[in-house]
Design brief:
Strand content: 15-25%
Structural class: alpha+beta
Mean pLDDT: 92
Number of strands: 16
Low-confidence stretches: none
CATH topology of the largest domain: Alpha-Beta Plaits
Strand order of the largest sheet: 1-2-3-6-7
Order of helices and strands: EEEHEEHEEHEHEEEHEEHEEHEHH
Distance between the termini: 61 Å
Largest sheet: 5 strands, antiparallel
Helix content: 10-25%
Shape: globular
Number of helices: 9
């Protein structure tokens, strides 16, 4: 067995090379925010998040993620749980997630609906609003050609708008929906919860949480000089809590996570770590009730047949 690690400015890759297989895990640093969600659920504690040092007068920088090539066993839990799509597992060079293939772990539900028929030809508000540059708005002629000079087109009624979103990397902050004047985009959040700022514990003149927040407007500086949480945009990733220099100044509580159906002890443990025992128990009860209802419906239909 051979263990390898290769790191560049924008990418970190670890590998495990066996006689018959080659495993790799790649972190895209340009997408990673250092939120620590992957670290929270890693069963081997192979992922570590560290605060990035800053000099006096500098803005805080996002935390840095480290992956141990010695501890990782390439289960793939970290990839589907990352709200920013910053991690990728490969086996023998092919993208493959073992825990997804074995149906022991879910995928996050990124519910983003777009109706481009409502879009104005000259509107790119959603594209400009996306903090991660995941949206591309284009206008096309009937032959599919992209139109860049709309004003010069004589038959504008034949033009159509397309809105392309890189959904696999979208944390569903809803900024695009809120900024869209045409009610074209509808986004459902992935993570729900509460973020509380204990102001009595906040260091004076500290804005580290605001500096590292990946979603503009999720945290904002008010006219009174204090930082507040906008629940509409907050994705409850937790990077602000990690960057905060004072223990207990920020309290993050996730209450639910939207994900594909799964019945798995591994997911139950991960869900409990990310949310709470109460939230995990609630989900298990919901699954049990749903299963009972489905069983009763099948029995009722069977009796009607005979």
């Amino acid at each position: 067995m051979k263990l390898l690690k290769n790191e560049t400015e924008n990418e970190l890759t670890i590998e495990m090379i066996l006689h018959t297989k080659r495993y790799s895990l790649t972190l895209d640093k340009t997408r990673c925010t250092g939120c620590g969600i992957c670290m929270e659920i890693c069963p081997r504690e192979a992922i570590e998040i560290k605060k990035t040092p800053k000099a006096d007068g500098e803005k805080a920088k996002p935390p840095t993620l480290y992956i141990s090539e010695e501890k990782c066993h390439y289960c793939g839990m970290c990839e589907p749980i990352c709200p920013f799509g910053a991690l990728m597992v490969k086996i023998d060079g092919e993208h493959m997630i073992p825990v997804i293939n074995s149906e022991s772990f879910p995928k996050l539900i990124r519910e983003i609906e777009v109706d481009p028929t409502k879009c104005a030809l000259d509107c790119i508000d959603c594209e400009e609003a996306c903090p991660l540059n995941l949206i591309k708005v284009s206008v096309r002629a009937p032959d599919g050609e992209e139109v860049t000079d709309i004003a010069s087109r004589p038959n504008k009624e034949n033009l159509t708008v397309t809105v392309d979103i890189e959904k696999d990397f979208c944390p569903c902050c809803r900024l695009c929906e809120m900024k869209c004047p045409e009610d074209t985009i509808h986004v459902e959040k992935i993570f729900y919860g509460n973020l509380r700022i204990n102001r009595e514990k906040c260091p004076e003149d500290c804005q580290d949480c605001l500096d590292v927040c990946p979603i503009p407007g999720a945290l904002y500086l008010s006219d009174d000089g204090k930082i507040y949480v906008n629940k509409m945009y907050c994705i409850y990733c937790g990077v602000c809590k990690i960057a905060c220099p004072e223990e207990g100044a920020l309290e993050l509580h996730r209450t639910s996570i939207r994900h594909t159906p799964v019945h798995s002890g591994a997911w139950n443990k991960a869900l409990e770590k990310l949310t709470s025992t109460k939230a995990m128990t609630k989900e298990l009860r919901t699954k049990s009730s749903t299963k009972t209802q489905e069983s009763l419906e099948k029995r009722f239909l069977w009796r009607r047949k005979f």
